[in-house]
């Protein structure tokens, strides 16, 4: 479906037009259809978000916990498919942070910190976040000291540099997602955390505009050229990529062979 390289040397040429190339009407229509179906599936799963229990607190130095942070207006059900796949891969210790989309991103980050302080009392943390959840996670890492506990951050379709789509929603929280918002400018002016960060970008993203805004100012990026914003949550090739990124370094080369439908686009981050 998509290109197939994992080169991490510098920025890929032409990332400003992330892999879309010449206009292909049939491909665009197919992408819109798939995104629409993904939104329907997302809505159907929403009621199940209240049924997923948290993991019991444990205190072990070797413990590794994968924490999932959903996006705007969603809940933990967004990750049901990905969580099931990662559980099958051996990532049994999982916590899905649930929150109401109200207040500010910083207040949500504080709630995330308090949740992790209560539920993860030992070991190390990896965070997988979708959409606005990636900004909540970054605020936790960069403003609240979360980088001391978190080894890996993987964001899916996160508007790291803001999105013009936020202009269409009259909400104070959503307006924090605008490219010119104070929150986005101040967050991206902070020093990069020590946490290893990968932003997974959807080349057909209609909610993060421009698409390259989903690329974090630090870390590496992986582009799925033909996928949409919500579709990222349902595609097996994204699941393979996330599992590969979570793998230990000695396992990573083997895991990458399963993620051969993505394109890595450099390891120097993007400038917002």
Counted by DSSP, the helix tally is: 8
- The poorly predicted ranges are 1-21, 249-261
The third-level CATH topology is Rossmann fold
Name of the top-level CATH class = Alpha Beta
Number of beta strands? 7
What would you call the shape? globular
Query: What fraction, in percent, of the residue positions are helical?
Result: 25-40%
Task: State Rg.
Answer: 17 Å
- Structurally, the number of domains stands at 1
> From the coordinates shown, what is the CATH architecture?
3-Layer(aba) Sandwich
Sheet with the most strands, sense and barrel status: 7 strands, mixed
What is the CATH superfamily?
A: Alpha/Beta hydrolase fold, catalytic domain
Average of pLDDT? 82
Strand line-up in the sheet with most strands: 2-1-3-4-5-6-7
Strand content: 5-15%
Distance between the termini: 29 Å
| SSE sequence, one letter per element | HEHEHEHEHHEEHHE
Given helix and strand content, the structural type is: alpha/beta
Give an account of the 3D structure.
By secondary structure, the protein is an alpha/beta fold. It has a single domain (25-48, 60-261), classed as Alpha/Beta hydrolase fold, catalytic domain (Rossmann fold), CATH 3.40.50.1820. Helices cover 32% and strands 14% of the residues. Strands 2-1-3-4-5-6-7 form a seven-stranded mixed β-sheet, sandwiched between helices. Helix 4 links the parallel strand 3 (124-130) and strand 4. Helix 7 runs antiparallel to helix 8. The longest helix has 21 residues, at 25-45. The chain is globular and about 55 Å long. It starts with 24 loop residues before the first helix and ends in an 8-residue tail after the last strand. Residues 1-21 and 249-261 have low confidence and may be disordered.
């Amino acid at each position: 479906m998509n290109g197939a390289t994992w080169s991490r040397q510098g920025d890929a040429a032409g990332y400003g037009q992330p892999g879309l190339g010449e206009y292909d009407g049939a491909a665009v229509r197919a992408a819109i259809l798939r995104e629409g179906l993904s939104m329907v599936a997302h809505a159907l799963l929403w009621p199940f978000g209240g049924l997923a229990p948290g993991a019991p607190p444990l205190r072990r130095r070797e413990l590794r916990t994968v924490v999932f942070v959903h996006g705007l207006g969603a809940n933990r059900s967004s990750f049901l498919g990905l969580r099931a796949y990662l559980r099958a891969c051996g990532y049994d210790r999982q916590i899905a942070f649930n929150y109401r989309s109200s207040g500010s991103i910083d207040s949500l980050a504080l709630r995330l910190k308090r949740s992790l302080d209560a539920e993860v009392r030992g070991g190390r943390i990896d965070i997988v976040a979708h959409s606005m959840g990636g900004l909540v996670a970054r605020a936790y890492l960069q403003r609240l000291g979360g980088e001391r506990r978190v080894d890996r951050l993987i964001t899916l379709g996160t508007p790291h540099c803001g999105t013009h789509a936020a202009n269409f929603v009259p909400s104070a929280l959503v307006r924090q997602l605008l490219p010119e918002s104070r929150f986005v400018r101040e967050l991206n002016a902070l020093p990069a955390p020590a946490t290893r960060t990968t932003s997974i970008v959807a080349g057909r993203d209609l909610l993060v505009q421009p698409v390259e805004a989903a690329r974090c100012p630090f870390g590496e990026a992986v582009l799925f050229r033909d996928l949409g914003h919500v579709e990222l949550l349902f595609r097996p090739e994204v699941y393979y990529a996330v599992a590969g990124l979570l793998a230990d370094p000695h396992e990573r080369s083997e895991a990458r062979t399963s993620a051969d439908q993505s394109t890595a686009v450099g390891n120097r981050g993007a400038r917002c």
